Amino acid sequence: FQQDLLHLYLNAQNQTSSRELKIAIIGAGATGVELAAELVIAKQNFFKYGLNKIDPNKVKITLIEAADRILPALSEKMAEHTMEQLDRLGIEVLTSHRVAKVDEDQIYFADGSSLEAEIKVWAAGIKAPEVLAKLKELEKDNINRLKVYATLQTLSDPDIFVFGDCAHCQPEADQPVLGPRAQVASQQAAFLVRALKARINGESYLPMFKFSDKGSLVSLSQNSAVGELLGQVNVQGFVAKSMYVSLYRIHQATIHGYTHAGLLTAKDFVTRKIAPKLKLH
Asked: Which residue in 6, 25, 121, 137 has the most C-beta neighbors within 10 A?
């Protein structure tokens, strides 16, 4: 996507007058929302780099969601706060618009309407691995995730455990199915360490998985974010952005180890004033 966007800007430099650019992002989950906000910054930076044949004021960014609100996997209050920020950024949001077809120039919706877009980005949710569709004997949902009990055992075979984006998990009957979120997969992975040991040791009762929502953060620009902590505390602006960056550093430490993560943090701190605002390669 970055390469396509860069080539479009470079090609526009051969034109004698400025032109419009319409970008549509399909899917208003966290990924789609963050991408839309980053594009607002990118269009300004392209102009500053001298790629000025596409006027930033003529770049239209549209965020499309099939559900009746953005961030359908997160709380309504967080979605409301995010909508306010997107409106300030000048991003058009279309909810209750289910995409039926996409071609080179248009996006067609199920209600018969359409939207012109030169660049289209698909950010609409997850898809279970293709191999799961071939497991005919196991019960699945409409996107081929395997249905599991609260023990993370499949409904069809107690010796098969599933977690993360492969699992259709509803730990409590009065609660919705857990969404495809990183903290869900992380907690399920830690839980499986205990569950698998219990199964291998032949214990008659296995532990039940309970999801603890630590909150969510969505980045909206270099210095702003919106978030909700523990389902109660709402944070916005610089405070939320600082927490977002902190979580990113914790993620780096988990993947690379604390020493490597510390070096990466130091490198970013030293080079942040001289590093380019856009990656042009």
From this structure: 25
Q: What is the length of the chain? A: 281
Q: List 244's β-bridge partners, or say none.
A: none
Dihedral sign computed on CA atoms, order 198, 200, 203, 207: positive
Hey, what are 177's tokens? Answer: 């199915």
Radius of gyration in angstroms for the set of CA atoms belonging to the chain, rounded to a whole number: 22
d(CA 53, CA 30): 31
Which residues, 6 or more positions from 214, have their beta carbon under 8 angstroms from its beta carbon?
A: 183, 229, 230
The one-digit pLDDT tens for each residue of the chain (281 residues) are 777 788 888 888 888 777 889 999 999 999 999 999 999 988 888 888 888 888 899 999 999 999 999 998 888 888 999 999 999 999 999 999 999 999 989 999 999 999 999 999 999 877 788 899 889 899 999 889 999 999 999 999 999 999 999 999 998 888 889 988 888 998 999 999 999 999 999 998 899 999 988 888 898 877 788 888 866 677 888 888 888 888 888 888 888 899 999 999 998 888 877 776 665 55
Measured distance CA(164)–CA(211) in Å, rounded: 12
Q: If we measure between CA atoms, which residue out of 59, 73, 81 comes closest to residue 28?
A: 73
Whether the CA torsion 222, 250, 194, 196 is positive or negative: it is positive
C-beta atoms surrounding 263 within 10 Å: 13
DSSP notation for 40-67: HHHHHHHHHTT--SEEEEEEEEEEE-SS
